[in-house]
């Protein structure tokens, strides 16, 4: 069939005039053309508006074909129509996608893949050249480095909270993983060292042996965490902004939902203080929370603390063979396998708003893409400060920015070292705070260290290990420096951190280095496209647990957010949950899932009101 010679219908035609037929395996003769098969599309996906858009797209497509522009898609709707999805001239009529996702962090990818498997046509726009954002990877001199943390929660084959495993399975991926016997080895002031073993009882015994007088308090505090975790684990996790699902869960699991509702506004620090008095043990709980949220226990929602403190024993921490980057790569591949698309080097500069509704995205190279819904995986500060005009900040976002600030960015050092510098049985993850508990939250105060080659040797050339060292660091420390001073400061700060580890953990570390690369907050701002290179949101004051954290809908119709500045916050599994929630809400709004507009209005109103109480 000559797709370019097909006819056009009259512009007045409606969906009833059209018959949607699959194209089968038809191949395009134009090497730039992609031919999509729309057999799974239901007519309801084509409103009048869309049909007109397609027709308009045909004319444009033909013109562009003559100009040798790439066609993006071909739709067979009885007569063959061609349409293109992007436009440099900004015609709103070429709307084609159900959703555009700005950013391919795990949050964005999970939202995109979940939508794609529900039958939506999704376009992901990623500024960088590979997917993953903070969960990406990079390769140098035979080393494969994880960009961010290597601690992967929610990656087991058990229960309902293994959201990473579930997200991959949804697009037909199952990854080989390596179980980590120790989530983290803490090296704390006063020579207090403790390993968080995979086996819960082993960890608790070790903790009780250090604080025998607090045995009961320890059991009670972690007992509350288990109560919350078990409640979470009993639910089917979907959008808390979708009333049919939410009320359904309350009906099916009333006790568990009430437990979660009760703990939703509470923090780990208060709960710990109900049972524990020893200041050093409370400081340890602070350190436990700090690695979850970059703030102390008084500021860490108990639901988030419980999630992490129990999943590490329930499903355990598992590392993907080949590195963390494999997760994003698999999700991106899964997305494309579902018939959706991902564009790299696609730097979104603004969200196009028409009649108060988000309808498209404009890129820095001038291209524009249109969709029924826009999902931003950029932080809320970037979304409402850069992609949308700062001056038009909706009240909801003002409230968010009042309750949460950007956590400081971080300094990270990726090292390749000679393997023999590490003692046998070295753990994969370490948290180091040498002398003074007061330094826990200070910039450069505590050090995170991951050695993923302890689990997967294939990440480094034989005889070597990878060390990923990171610590909090504000971007202000790195601005206004000349190139020379900036480079010198990088060297100096890295040297100090490496010396601390050389002294505390691995004597000889400095002289065993074969590769070193230092990333500053500016590096993270640039490559992760996160405002000030922020690690994520942190509460300005003591929060009411998770109550103030916004979900996925925004004050702008058709615009959704996903990622760590949405409920439940920082963490790969947390952003995966945000992706699941977002996809469910968007699917309901575009007619791929059940929806009740009256209940929607009521629930969204109540949730908005609850946030004002926080
Ligand atoms: N910072 C770390 O060290 C680290 C490491 C691992 C995991 N994590 C976790 O990952 C979470 C973040 O995950 P996430 O999914 O929310 O986001 P993310 O920051 O990982 O990914 C966002 C993606 O969006 C892209 N992007 C941003 N603005 C864009 C634009 N204008 N145009 C096109 N692309 C754009 C970025 O390039 C990036 O790939 C953090 O909370 C953290 O807990 C962090
Ligand atoms: C809707 C209302 C008002 C009421 C209804 C009640 C109800 C049904 C509530 C339901 C709530 C739900 C379902 C909540 C779900 C919450 C979830 C899934 C939370 C998940 C949180 C996960 C977190 C916080 C994970 C964090 C992980 C992190 C940050 C890991 C970081 C690791 C490091 C930084 C590395 C450390 C590294 C070294 C080297 C030590």
From TrEMBL:
State what protein this is by name. Answer: prolycopene isomerase
Keywords (alphabetical) are: Carotenoid biosynthesis, Chloroplast, FAD, Flavoprotein, Isomerase, Membrane, NAD, NADP, Plastid, Transit peptide
* Enzyme class, UniProt record, top EC level: isomerase
Matches recorded under InterPro entries: Amino_oxidase, CrtISO, CrtISO-like, FAD/NAD-bd_sf
Protein family membership: Belongs to the carotenoid/retinoid oxidoreductase family. CrtISO subfamily.
| Pathway assigned to this chain's UniProt record | Carotenoid biosynthesis; lycopene biosynthesis
Q: Which reaction does it catalyse?
A: 7,7',9,9'-tetra-cis-lycopene = all-trans-lycopene
Whether Chloroplast counts among this entry's keywords is yes
- Return the EC number: 5.2.1.13
Domain Amine oxidase: where? 107-586
Per the record, membrane topology reads: Peripheral membrane protein
Q: Which organism is it from?
A: Sesamum indicum
Q: Which GO terms describe its biological process?
A: carotenoid biosynthetic process
Gene for this chain: LOC105161700
């Amino acid at each position: 069939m000559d797709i370019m010679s097909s006819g056009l219908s009259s512009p007045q035609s409606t969906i009833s005039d059209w018959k949607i037929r699959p194209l089968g395996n038809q191949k395009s003769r134009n090497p730039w053309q992609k031919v999509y098969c729309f057999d799974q599309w239901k007519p309801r996906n084509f409103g009048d508006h869309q049909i007109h858009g397609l027709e308009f797209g045909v004319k444009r497509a033909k013109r562009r074909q003559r100009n040798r522009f790439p066609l993006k898609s071909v739709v067979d709707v009885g007569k063959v129509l061609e349409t293109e999805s992007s436009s440099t001239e900004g015609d709103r009529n070429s709307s084609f996608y159900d959703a555009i996702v700005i950013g391919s962090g795990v949050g964005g990818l999970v939202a995109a893949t979940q939508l794609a498997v529900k039958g939506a046509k999704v376009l992901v726009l990623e500024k960088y050249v590979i997917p993953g954002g903070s969960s990406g990877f990079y390769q140098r001199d035979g080393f494969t480095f994880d960009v961010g943390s290597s601690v992967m929660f929610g990656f087991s084959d058990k229960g309902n909270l293994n959201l990473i495993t579930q997200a991959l399975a949804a697009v037909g991926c199952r990854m080989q993983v390596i179980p980590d016997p120790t989530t983290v080895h803490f090296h704390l002031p006063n020579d207090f060292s403790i390993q968080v073993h995979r086996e819960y009882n082993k960890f608790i015994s070790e903790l009780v042996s250090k604080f025998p007088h607090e045995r009961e308090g320890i059991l009670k505090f972690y007992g509350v965490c288990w109560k919350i975790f078990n409640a979470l684990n009993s639910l089917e996790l979907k959008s808390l902004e979708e009333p049919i699902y939410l009320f359904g869960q309350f009906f099916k699991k009333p006790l568990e939902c009430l437990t979660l509702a009760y703990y939703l506004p509470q923090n780990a620090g208060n709960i710990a203080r109900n049972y524990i008095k020893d200041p050093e043990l409370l400081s340890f709980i602070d350190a436990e929370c700090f690695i979850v949220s970059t703030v102390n226990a008084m500021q860490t929602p108990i639901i988030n603390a419980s999630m992490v403190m129990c999943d590490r024993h329930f499903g355990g921490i598992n590392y993907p063979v080949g590195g963390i980057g494999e997760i994003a790569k698999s999700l991106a591949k899964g997305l494309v396998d579902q018939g959706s698309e991902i564009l790299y080097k696609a730097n979104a500069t603004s969200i196009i708003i028409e009649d108060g509704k988000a309808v498209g995205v404009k890129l820095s190279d001038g291209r524009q893409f249109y969709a029924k819904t826009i999902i931003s995986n950029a932080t809320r500060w970037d979304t409402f400060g850069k992609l949308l005009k700062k001056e038009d900040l909706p009240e909801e976002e003002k409230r968010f920015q009042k309750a949460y600030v950007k956590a400081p960015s971080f300094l990270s050092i990726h090292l390749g070292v000679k393997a023999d510098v590490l003692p046998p049985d070295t753990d994969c993850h370490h948290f180091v705070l040498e002398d003074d508990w007061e330094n826990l939250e200070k910039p450069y105060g505590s050090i995170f260290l991951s050695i993923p080659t302890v689990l997967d040797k294939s990440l480094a050339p034989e005889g070597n290990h990878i060390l990923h060292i990171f610590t909090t660091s504000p971007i202000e420390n790195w601005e206004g420096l000349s190139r020379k001073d900036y480079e010198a400061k990088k060297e100096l700060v890295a040297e100090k951190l490496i010396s601390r580890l050389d002294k505390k953990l691995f004597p000889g570390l400095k002289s065993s280095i074969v590769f070193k690369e230092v990333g500053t907050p500016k590096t993270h701002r640039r490559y992760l496209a996160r405002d000030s290179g922020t690690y994520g949101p942190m509460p300005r004051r003591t929060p009411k647990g998770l109550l103030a954290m916004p979900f996925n809908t925004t004050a702008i119709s058709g615009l959704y957010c996903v990622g760590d500045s949405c409920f439940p916050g920082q963490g790969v599994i947390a952003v995966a949950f945000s992706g699941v929630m977002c996809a469910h809400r968007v699917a309901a709004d575009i007619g791929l899932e059940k929806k009740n507009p009256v209940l929607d209005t009521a629930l969204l109103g109540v949730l908005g009101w609850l946030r004002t109480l926080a």
